[in-house]
Amino acid sequence: MRMKKLFAAVLAIMMCVSVAACGGNSAAPASSAAPASSAAEPASEPASEPASSEAASAADTTLPETLVVGLDASFPPMGFMDQNNNVIGVDIDLAKAVCEKLGIGFEAKPIDWDAKDMELSSDKINCIWNGLTITDERLEAYEMSPAYMDNEQVIVVMQDSEIKAKADLAGKTVAAQKDSSGLEALQGDEIYASIKDGVAKEYGNYVDAMTDLEIGRCDAIVMDSIVANYYITMNAKPMVVLEDKMSSEEYGIAFKKGNTALKDAVWGALKELKEEGKIAEISNEWFGRDDMIIIE
Hints:
Shape: globular
CATH architecture of the largest domain: 3-Layer(aba) Sandwich
Largest sheet: 10 strands, mixed
Structural class: alpha/beta
Radius of gyration: 23 Å
CATH class of the largest domain: Alpha Beta
Helix content: 25-40%
Number of strands: 13
Oligomer: single chain
């Protein structure tokens, strides 16, 4: 038996040498980067057999074995932790459906939102898919998908607050998430210089900010309308969204600069899922209407 194993090993080596000699300068396939560690356990699923898909066949040699999606896991309903510590949400369901269609694995990777650029550039994640606002700066820094959802930056206060309009934020403690579009909208508005201390109170995530709003540690929050309305409704919070809006925007998916193949494959899969009715199904499940997610 040991002789047979030795013979097999020698034969394998000879075959490898022969193949290498014939192969010349052919490039080895790129391997996907291992995901960074995180305080929360990443949610991953093995690769599935791809459905008959133009997106899959067009890019099957350039796709990672597993799509590692970077997200803020405190951003309901786009991506958040359920009571069993599983990452769920609109973007999670979309990404899972895309991975199933492309025949690759899926992993949700919670990250610090203000470290998202570093996570993507260092290949610890393959994309940022978590209610990410499309901006001119991000169009320059990333490979951005087309928009798939509309959103607004709004002002959230307690129901009994004396703040009734944007002008009433003067002299008040106004909160926003670090490195967020809400913070950018607040800082770019003329009211910013008038808020308490002339600076926003920054939080790592909006769930913490809304907890502090409820106990009086801040007076108002500038945040995504999609998150605000979902959180207030699902948790029956005595909060309101003011009529005054800070800005209008669109959500997109960010990929590493230069990785157009992955961006195109993901968007192609989303377009096929739209035609199959899956996008409307996900929209209806999370929002009670089938037209919140726009794939064109």
